[in-house]
Amino acid sequence: MTYSYARTGVLAAGAALALLCACGGGPAGAPGGGAAGSPTRPAGGRGDCVTPTGDQSTDVDGDGRADRVSDPSGSGRRLTVSFGDGSGDGHGTPVTARELAGRVPARHDVLAAVADFDDDGHVDLVLVVTPSSTPMDDPRNAEVRLRFGPVSPAGRADREERFPLFEASGVAVADYDHDDFPDLALYQYWGEGYHQIVALPGERGSGLGREPVPASRYTRPGGEQEGWDRLEDLPRSGLSAFLAPCVS
Ligand SMILES: [Ca+2]
Ligand SMILES: [Ca+2]
Ligand SMILES: [Ca+2]
């Protein structure tokens, strides 16, 4: 079955087709990881790396200490950042995406992802805030809040840009077009009970493209959407496309 994208009418065109390798080819299955709970040292480049448990070690607040980004949900819903404090296992109490977002009504959904989307050397925080549900079937309007790093433990950043989007119930980091810029994958409501995975391409300067591109343009020959997507179809190995395994 083929679906059209006529609903938005604004989807970016011309994206090069590329096959997403969900299995990565990156450093998954890092050898030599330390024992659970032991501190890890960033390896290579800016110092970002992936722990054996799949967490991201990076310096979110720019204080020179590695912080740990964890998202056991794989969809941005349970993302936390444990900021390095030099004590114990080297990390403080995990700060949730909602806490990083700041003043957000309790019934609003908050999703988050972390990556250096604008390639300036500082990891950025993207929050997707969706108002509480309505009885209407229409897609709800959400707001993307892109905070350019460094981002403080209180979620503050010197620069934030906001733009609207249809509601999303999952976010993840991927590199759909293999340009070494992290892209943001969103599991977006398409109306009438259907969802589709779309991408906001990472861009130097702006951080993220503003027009969602169906992920099928990168992942399927011909780029056609075949059926509707499930939340578990969100890319789970996005970080491994960018980061090396952590070493003790
Ligand atoms: Ca830090
Ligand atoms: Ca950045
Ligand atoms: Ca990319």
Question: What are the low-pLDDT stretches, counting only 5+ consecutive residues below 50?
Answer: 1-45
Report the sheet-strand fraction: 25-35%
CA(first)-CA(last) distance: 49 Å
Strand order of the largest sheet: 5-4-3-2-1-16
Mean pLDDT: 77
Quickly count the helices. Answer: 2
Overall structural class, as computed from helix and strand content, comes to: mainly beta
Radius of gyration: 18 Å
Structural features, described:
The protein is mainly β. It is 4% helix and 30% strand. The protein has a six-stranded mixed β-sheet. It has a four-stranded antiparallel β-sheet with strand order 6-7-8-9. Strands 10-11-12-15 form a four-stranded antiparallel β-sheet. Strand 6 and strand 7 form a beta hairpin. The structure holds calcium ion (3 copies). The site of one calcium ion has 8 residues, from loops.
Concise account of the structure shown:
The chain has 248 residues and is mainly beta. The protein has 2 helices and 16 strands.
Please give a handful of descriptors for the protein shown:
six-stranded mixed sheet, 248 residues, 30% strand, mainly beta, binds calcium ion, 16 strands, four-stranded antiparallel sheet, disordered N terminus
